[in-house]
Amino acid sequence: MVLVSGATSGFGKEIAKIFAKNGYDVCITGRRKERLQELKIELEAAYKAKVIMLQFDVRNRQEVITAIDGLKKQINAVDILVNNAGLAAGLSTIDEGDMDDWDVMIDTNVKGLLYVTKQVLPLMKEKGGHIFNIGSTASKLVYKNGNVYCATKFAVDALSQSMRIDLLPYGIKVTAVHPGMAETEFSLVRFKGDAERASAVYRGFEPLHPEDIADTVYYCATLPKHVCINDLTMTCLNQATSMYTIKDSERVNLDK
Ligand code: NDP
Ligand code: 8X3
Question: Which pLDDT belongs to residue 255?
Fold first, then answer.
């Protein structure tokens, strides 16, 4: 069983799809129930997959406990956990930052990841397994106005390193995947529904696609048992770091 947090959109949705397509049972989670229902129907019809859906908010500790307790009544083990649910809220300097935005990011990206992991681990410790934590290029290098979002993703990096040590005796692999810019609902959420501002982020170059991240997670998950990719940063062709992305118009050999 592969449990994917934040499977209603973007990376999580494609990650759930690629595992279902390849014969894995999947557990899809998120807050938006209709999206979960649609995806469950789609995966069952397209791939004859076994799909369990769990609606909960990763920030709500009791909701997480209740949901995973319910899962424990249906299955004996989670083989792969993908901690993907996350978001950015706002983009501003520390002095102008919105404290509600800070709370949402810290509660979702850091505490939510911890709550889900803690509840799922009893389903993984007996047999071993694989945890994927979706960080970001922002886990490696901060960028202007990214302050709290970057801090939460640095925390994902630190927690991935810690989990790798703590879970070594259980044969649990921990892979942190750090993508650069990818067009999903991420910027729409960050800019609170401002579609024009969101799409402008990706104008002039081809960003990563959610399928690229899903392919990468699937690749890491299907390596031989003795091999673990610990930490992986991936960007589109025009991005070097979280601070440096160029437009196609800046490429010197674009038409060659
Ligand atoms: P999307 O906004 O498309 O998807 C985010 C997912 O997270 C949704 O399924 C959403 O589900 C879920 N989610 C958000 N908050 C909560 C919550 N409180 N409880 C449960 N689920 C929640 O964004 P992406 O697919 O791009 O983002 C996925 C991850 O990748 C995030 O951690 C993000 O930080 C990271 N990332 C994104 C990059 C990008 O450029 N797109 C680059 C690098 C990293 P729902 O709203 O239904 O609850
Ligand atoms: C998301 C990458 O640079 O758009 O983690 O904030 S960025």
Answer: 74
